[in-house]
Amino acid sequence: MQDLLNGQLARLVALSPSPYVRVSALVRQACATTLSLPPLPAEARVDDPADATESVLVEFAEQFSADVSAISDDLRGRFLSALGDAAVPAVMLTYFADFLPRVRAGLAALGSPEPWSDAIEWDHDSDPSDVLFNSFLPAVHELRTLDPVTTEVVRLRGAAQHNCRMCKARRESDALEAGGTEALYEQIAWYEISNALTERHKAALRYVDALIWTPAAIAPDVAAGVREHFSEAEAFELTVDVMHNAANKIAVSLAADAVPS
Questions:
Q1: For the domain that residue 181 is a member of, what is the CATH number?
Q2: pLDDT of residue 2
Q3: Are 202 and 188 in contact (CB under 8 A)?
Q4: Statement to judge: residues 10 and 117 lie in one domain
Q5: What one-character-per-residue DSSP string does 119-140 give?
Q6: Three-state SS for 12?
Q7: How many Cα neighbours within 13 Å face the side chain of 7?
Q8: pLDDT of the residue at 213
Q9: Cα pseudo-dihedral 164, 167, 170, 173, rounded to 10
Q10: pLDDT means per 10 residues in the chain (261 residues)?
Q11: Residue 234 gets which letter from DSSP?
């Protein structure tokens, strides 16, 4: 399964839809600069935004990476107005530009092999939404090396950090059946002093926080904690789970994360 997921990650890196080659290049540069990480390769060479539309695109991508929950109504409105029909594809490409470098940095900190090679055959035809929702996310969901409670604890931490209303409200039934409780989940917010969360949970949560907030400076003790408490396969699943869960940034960025009434 890890080889399959590495293939999925490589496919995301190679996405370069023909109408959005420059959009992809701009957001890859903007996100990487914001994160202080090496950018994903891009098919087009870009320097600065060429016009007002591209300036809004870059501003949106920078805030998407820095703290998606802080995207203002004003910025969102300007982004949707400027990008028009290209807005949703641009958000998808921004998500890839934002999180794939985090995955690469996380696996590097753990001493894992590079998840994709530098040899890229650009994919001009695939729909980013289709690849994300019908290929990558289902493939991550099929991973079963981690226990359900740890998976849910990790998901809920990401939901809180990105302030996704839908994700915070949802509960996974397999985790509940495996012993997850609201009393346990309530302690995620102050996990370092929790007496209910295990050291394994805490090691995972430190890694989640590092991937979300400081991916360019994952502390050695955070990486060591993951290696101590998780097998190599579990650590890989933990890493791609964080990216899977962070797809909620797409909905949050567009204010589409309201809990259905």
A1: 1.20.1290.10
A2: 79
A3: no
A4: yes
A5: ----BSSS-HHHHIIIIIHHHH
A6: helix
A7: 6
A8: 97
A9: -160
A10: 87 95 96 96 91 97 97 97 96 97 97 89 94 95 93 96 93 90 95 95 98 97 97 96 96 88 60
A11: H
Q: Which residues span the domain enclosing 77?
A: 2-122
What is residue 4's predicted lDDT score, i.e. its pLDDT? Answer: 84
Amino acid letter at 89? Answer: P
Contacts of 43 (CB under 8 A, 6+ apart): 16, 21, 24, 25, 122
Residues 14 and 112 in one domain: yes
Would you say the C-alpha torsion 172, 187, 102, 54 has a positive or negative sign?
positive
Q: Are residues 10 and 100 in the same domain?
A: yes
Task: Tally the residues of the chain.
Answer: 261
| Amino acid at residue number 197 | L
Instruction: Give the span between the Cα atoms of 245 and 137, in whole angstroms.
Output: 9
Number of structural domains in the chain:
2
Q: Which of 90, 128, 84, 73 is CA-nearest to residue 252?
A: 73
Q: How much is the pLDDT for 261? A: 60
- Whole-angstrom distance, CA of residue 45 vs CA of residue 137: 29
Q: Are residues 159 and 116 in the same domain?
A: no
Is residue 141 included in any domain, yes or no?
no
User: Which pLDDT value is given to residue 153?
Assistant: 96
Is there a single domain that holds both residue 88 and residue 158?
Answer: no
Instruction: Decide if 57 is inside a domain.
Output: yes
Residue with tokens 């409780």: 181
| Beta bridge mates, 15 | 123
CA dist., res. 101 & res. 210, Å (int): 13
Co-location of 63 and 18 in the same domain: yes
Residue with tokens 């300036």: 55
The reply to whether 132 falls in a domain is no
Distances (CA, A) of 142 to 103, 127, 146, 237, 257: 18, 22, 11, 10, 24
